[in-house]
C-alpha cells in the first residue's frame, strides 16, 4: 500500500493536525516508511510464541477482588468545591 499526498492530507485532517502543504510530501513518505516496517513485521513467523506482558519475565501479583468504599470518602470529598450528603455536588445541566 502506498500513501500519496492527498491521503496524507486527509489523515492529517482526520487527526486534526495542521500540516502545511509543503510538508505533505515528507509526511506521505513517513507514512510509507511506517507501512513498510509494518509489512516487515507481518513477515515474521510468530507461530508458537507466547504473548509478552513485559520485556522482563515476571509474574503479576494476584489478589481477590473485594468491593469496598475505599475508606477515604471524607478525604476525597474534602477536595470538592461542593459536596452534599457524602457525594459530589455539581450544577444542574439538564432541564
TrEMBL record:
SUPFAM superfamilies: Glu-tRNAGln amidotransferase C subunit (SSF141000). Its EC number is 6.3.5.-. Pfam families: GatC. Keywords: ATP-binding, Ligase, Nucleotide-binding, Protein biosynthesis. It catalyses: L-glutamyl-tRNA(Gln) + L-glutamine + ATP + H2O = L-glutaminyl-tRNA(Gln) + L-glutamate + ADP + phosphate + H(+); L-aspartyl-tRNA(Asn) + L-glutamine + ATP + H2O = L-asparaginyl-tRNA(Asn) + L-glutamate + ADP + phosphate + 2 H(+). It comes from the Bacteria. Heterotrimer of A, B and C subunits. Allows the formation of correctly charged Asn-tRNA(Asn) or Gln-tRNA(Gln) through the transamidation of misacylated Asp-tRNA(Asn) or Glu-tRNA(Gln) in organisms which lack either or both of asparaginyl-tRNA or glutaminyl-tRNA synthetases. The reaction takes place in the presence of glutamine and ATP through an activated phospho-Asp-tRNA(Asn) or phospho-Glu-tRNA(Gln). This is Aspartyl/glutamyl-tRNA(Asn/Gln) amidotransferase subunit C. It comes from Arenibacterium halophilum. The lineage of its organism: Bacteria, Pseudomonadati, Pseudomonadota, Alphaproteobacteria, Rhodobacterales. The gene is gatC.
